[in-house]
Amino acid sequence: xxxxxxxxxxxxxxxxxxxxxxxxxxxxxxxxxxxxxxxxxxxxxxxxxxxxxxxxxxxxxxxxxxxxxxxxxxxxxxxxxxxxxxxxxxxxxxxxxxxxxxxxxxxxxxxxxxxxxxxxxxxxxxxxxxxxxxxxxxxxxxxxxxxxxxxxxxxxxxxxxxxxxxxxxxxxxxxxxxxxxxxxxxxxxxxxxxxxxxxxxxxxxxxxxxxxxxxxxxxxxxxxxxxxxxxxxxxxxxxxxxxxxxxxxxxxxxxxxxxxxxxxxxxxxxxxxxxxxxxxxxxxxxxxxxxxxxxxxxxxxxxxxxxxxxxxxxxxxxxxxxxxxxxxxxxxxxxxxxxxxxxxxxxxxxxxxxxx
Length: 356
Description:
By secondary structure, the chain is of the alpha/beta class. The chain is built from eleven helices and 13 strands. The chain has a domain at 3-175: Peroxisomal Thiolase, Chain A, domain 1. α3 (53-68) crosses α4 (92-100).
């Protein structure tokens, strides 16, 4: 059975750099406060009316296709991971197909909604397709434009200061080369804490989720209205309920537990020690999480790649962006063992071991 290799990789981020100092114009915060809690110094924001998750993804994908040495028409399947799609529906997969000008209608498109874990989940799905022989050229992308949907007031600062925009892409192909490619992937979830990191409204929940929250929230639903009028209400707008929510401390504690767990799980399967990892590329959630996990796994600075300082948290895009940067910098070389892992909303988490 063939393994799955990364044949080409690329990333693209918007030109606009937004520093911590700039955020202080909109909310009560400071450069020191943000760096102390997250390690982030700046992030990129997309240009309104011009850039979307799909357009960013198309630029990253074009680079990945060129490096893989294939044409866009040779793409068999598209997997698009994002939590900030252009539209509620249809998903970004078909929009990317159109943006790239892929006219091959035999090419399917799958949208992954696993937030920060989206790229890892997409990689695992693609791996099964490649190994089964169903597809030979899969384009997997992670792309986000968070900046269009954040709360730029002091009330929303704990979430807003963290996120940035960007896209990363890989082309996946089968390989018969001994010991190369994806060695294993592991996927996990726990829905008990779904509301600890969430974007609830607007949505089709109609208040159903209230039994899973610590406090009741009045979304302005009319109990006497039998049909319609439940997706978005004026009260949601007036009370600022149309933004993401995060219980930062709870997420931090869970993440620093699950990151090392999944890494050790994968290493045990392939019977390798932690020291065998040449490069660990975590989802860029928070520099403090990465540093904590690094110490726990006893990895050196040369074994870990972090770029959250300049891009912020780009959720589904963060791993492919970081992986591409590390490869371009010569830190990921032929024969290296690369470990990737992600944790995010859901909760979902997972990882992959790749022999480059």
